[in-house]
Design goal:
Largest sheet: 3 strands, parallel
CATH topology: Transcription Regulator spoIIAA
Number of strands: 7
Radius of gyration: 14 Å
Distance between the termini: 43 Å
CATH class: Alpha Beta
Shape: globular
């Protein structure tokens, strides 16, 4: 069985909440209905090769359930495995409409080093593209 860090366990729990409440917006902080999209998610503080498999599975499940915004603000430790997972999310069915928000500057630089920054972070989406009109 794959060992899971506390950050990954929290991510999986939040995705489970999003999936369980995808029929209506659910605010996981207050436990009440809100205007926030139910499947929007944040990623854990650490995504390296050790966490990539669990993060990939959780993120792809969230995208399949309709997640369109992945908040990268809390990402503090990462390596090229994080870039690879973000690329896989982009290539997944429905992944073209996913927005990576609050991208850390060094993650952008790492993606640029590999020549994939424009594939990941320069995607233009509109409210219509996201079904939010």
């Amino acid at each position: 069985m794959l060992a899971m860090s506390p950050d990954m366990a929290a991510l999986c729990a939040s995705i489970g909440t999003a999936l369980a409440h995808r029929s209506g917006a659910f605010d996981s902080f207050t436990g009440s209905e809100s205007s926030r999209q139910p499947s929007d998610m944040q990623i854990p503080a650490r995504v390296t090769l050790a966490e990539a498999t669990a993060f990939r599975a959780a993120a792809l499940a969230a995208c399949a359930a309709g997640a369109r915004d992945l908040d990268l603000a809390g990402l503090a430790e990462y390596d090229s495995a994080a870039v690879a997972v973000l690329l896989e999310i982009r290539r997944a069915p429905g992944g073209a409409g996913v927005r990576f928000l609050n991208v850390p500057a060094n993650l952008r630089k790492l993606a640029s080093l590999y020549g994939v920054d424009s594939l990941l972070f320069d995607i233009r989406t509109t409210a219509t593209d996201l079904g939010r009109v």
